[in-house]
Design brief:
mainly alpha; two-stranded antiparallel ribbon; 2 helices
């Protein structure tokens, strides 16, 4: 729905048709008038048309600078998102490697337990034979 507003820019009345709200148009008008007052304070020109044009140029400069900043921020945001994705992929790879290492560690632990039991059996066998040999020696010396 198109609305019609009477606005006053630097003392000149204008009729504007827009879909914007009255509150928005008041803010827009006040922003331009503030810029006009800033330029008038510098005393650079007395011609209202020049003052308004300078104010419009400064506001346009603000818009372009803001657009550039937004584009730069979006680019940086994409770069950060790409880095985050790479870090996530790297993290997932490291997690998978950790799972593999945990399985290997578990297998090595089981193997170490089996070797320990085997060593204990061999040690028992050795001690039993030692006792038997000592007994044979004792009997032979008697």
């Amino acid at each position: 729905m198109t609305n019609q507003y009477n606005v006053n820019i630097a003392g000149y009345g204008l009729v504007v048709q827009t879909e914007r709200s009255a509150v928005y148009m008041e803010r827009l008008t006040e922003t331009l008038n503030e810029k006009v007052r800033e330029i008038q304070k510098t005393g650079g020109t007395a011609n209202y048309l020049n003052v308004v044009m300078l104010a419009a140029m400064e506001l346009a400069d603000d818009v372009l600078t803001t657009k550039e900043s937004v584009l730069k921020a979006r680019k940086e945001s994409r770069e950060f998102a790409e880095k985050a994705l790479r870090f996530e992929e790297e993290t997932n790879g490291l997690k998978e490697r950790l799972r593999v290492l945990e399985k290997e560690l578990f297998a090595l632990g089981a193997e170490a337990d089996a070797l320990r039991k085997e060593r204990e059996k061999i040690q028992e066998k050795f001690e039993r034979r030692n006792r038997d040999l000592l007994e044979v020696l004792d009997n032979a010396l008697k």
